[in-house]
Amino acid sequence: MALRSISVTQLSAYIKRLIAGDPILSGVIVKGEISKLTRHSSGHVYFTLKDSGSRISCFLPADRVPLLRYELEDGMEIIAIGSVSLYEKGGYYSLNVRSVEVEGEGALSAAFEALKRRLEAEGLFDPRHKKPLPPFPKRIGVVTSPTGAAIRDILTTLKRRYPFVDVLIYPCLVQGDGAAAQIAEGIKTLNERFPELDLMIVGRGGGSAEDLWCFNEEAVARAVYESEIPVISAVGHEIDTVICDLAADVRAATPTAAAELAVPHVLDLKDRVAQCSPERLSERLLSRISMAELRTEHALSAAYSAANDRIAALSARLLADLRSLEASDPLAVLARGFAYVTDTDGRHISSPEAAPEGTLLRVRFSGGEIGAVSRGAAEGAKEDDDEC
Amino acid sequence: MSVEKLSFEEALARLEEKSARLRSGELPLEESLKLYEECVRYHDICAGFLAEARQKIELYRPGTGETEEFDEA
Predict the structure, then answer these.
(1) How far does the CA of residue A166 sit from the closest CA of chain B (Å)?
(2) What pLDDT digit, counting tens, does each position of A175-190 carry?
(3) What gap in Å lies between CA A14 and CA A20, rounded to an integer?
(4) What range defines the domain where residue A97 resides?
(5) Is A167's Cβ below 8 Å from some Cβ in B?
(6) Do A305 and A261 belong to one domain?
(7) Can you name the residues that pair with A348 across neighbouring β-strands?
């Protein structure tokens, strides 16, 4: 008896049609733990979702991978959303995953650690890549919600500390689906359209781990890393650390702290400028000038008194010389009553022999001179002397 | 670059650098006086910058790619 058979392909096609036509299987939301996760070089991701009773193969197409909000890892509890389909060549059915949700702190922190490990290995948090913040920014970009607490805190702080900086706000969602894409887009847009910005602050105020999650998504981390403009990350409160913080050039504990890190304080600057005020600088200069004046005066008076001393010494010497000259002046001797006797040729007569009797003489007194005739050796005079 | 066009940052840097040189007291008095005059100019630029608050807060419109004044209220 000839059995009526169908081909394997025909059977598979039939089962495929059955599955595809089922309204439940075309849109399932299934919870389970990831195992045997494999990233294929094509970009597709394969894993098994299991619970205590059974397991199902899962397939995440490459084009969905960048849209995933959570880094997947073995052992992670997830909720996968997708459709069941038959893989005819392999002869098995699998879950074609469209998106993944994560519930609970454990799963979130596992996703955080997994992404952190991968991006760290890739160098996205490398301190050598981090850019310094300019000390006196002229214009700052802020990527955040225009209605949140963060922008209020940032603007208040900037106004209080440094009311000379312009601000450009890029408005975006800061939580939920699509937020990460908007934040990343904001960072890229500011870089492309406003490259003159000195720095940008990316962040939001406090919230639950789920609220802050968009700052843990790969798209944000990459945009921050690739930003040419230095980025300050300011997400939530002190205790919250997100991937965005790690990729940023500077991490601020809060949006207020980010604004404080972004600009100097006007009072500090006024103080610095006052240190160099003309009054301060001239104090020392004036004392240097009066010192110089004093020195000039001293030098002048020293030179004056040295010159005076010299003049006095010279005058004294001159006077002494004069005196001694006077003493040896024959005319001065005449003034004391002596006379000076010469022959008519002016030769000095110093002995009686030089003037025998009849010699014509000239006798000079201090008052003038007379002519005289020698009477020879003066015996009369001797007689007179004898008489005495 | 003319002194008047200097940014606050540049003017402050020059002010502090020249003031320090002036304070060192190692220069001849005549050079010090010239330096002092420069310091006064830089000081006036810095003090002038800090004297008056001026800030423009703008909001970018991703849809149109335009910016508008941000309403802080």
Answers:
(1) 5
(2) 988 999 999 999 999 9
(3) 10
(4) 8-103
(5) yes
(6) no
(7) A342
